[in-house]
Amino acid sequence: MLDLAAELLDRLRDSGLRELEVRHGTVRVKVSAAAAAPAVVDVVPPAAPTPVAPERAAPAAAAAKTVAAPLTGIFYRSGSPQAGPFVQAGSVVNVGDVVGLIEAMKLFNEVRSTVAGRVRRVVAENGQLVRAHQPLVELE
Q: How many structural domains is the chain composed of?
């Protein structure tokens, strides 16, 4: 049975599919591939702001970017309970930096940033269940 699961995982990797299911008699084996890269979502300010008198106009805020969860699981801000968080408010993040971990099916998956910027806030709490595509970290 383990040989069948290993073979299915190999085929899944080679095919580029996200999910594969095989039934043989009463046995059903289903394998799924986790998302490889974190999703990045641009948060855009409202399209039509209320006009303000020029002497009271505030500087336009830059659009915020978020690093979103690539899969559903438990979010961790650090690699171990004794270690400090990967990022916190004010941290500078470069493309490819680890911003957290997501535990899914007893595997820890690194969440890497695909944008650079300064952390505005960490949206997800340590040990919190997060859903795929849920914002984890806001960058400015």
A: 2
User: Does residue 108 fall inside a structural domain?
Assistant: yes
pLDDT, tens digit, 9 for 90 and up, residues 57-74: 445 455 679 999 999 999
What is the DSSP track for the chain? Answer: -HHHHHHHHHHHHHHT-SEEEEEETTEEEEEEPPPSS-EEEEE---SSPPP--GGGPPPPPPPEEEEEPSSSEEEESSSSTTSPPS--TT-EE-TT-EEEEEEETTEEEEEE-SS-EEEEEE-SPTTEEE-TT-EEEEE-
The model's pTM: 0.56
**CA dist 86 → 29, 30, 93, 137 (Å):** 36, 34, 10, 11
pLDDT in tens, 2-30: 666 667 666 766 666 667 676 666 766 66
Residues 28 and 83 placed together within one structural domain of the fold: no
